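Researcher: Please translate sequence to structure tokens.
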Amino acid sequence: MSNADKPVAPRKPRARRRKAVSADDTRAKPASAQAEAGNVKLLRGDWNEAFLDEICAFPNGQFDDQVDAFADALNELALSSSFSFSNF
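Model: Translation complete:
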């Protein structure tokens, strides 16, 4: 039997792993808007330079862990039913 006569086994499509940049972008937009509106304050610390470098490089930077944490924290504060400015 030649190769042309052999049945071809169906191939499963390969899953492609892609970073969900668009999801990160979407999740970070409210935090970005709040920062641009002047509603975000940073405490001075040794971490400021690394944090701001990562924020400024987003979404094309090598890292986005701090951006994700920042966006998630602001979103949680904004959407939490127990959040109130009177707590501060």
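Researcher: Any highlights?
Model: DSSP finds three helices and no strands in the chain.
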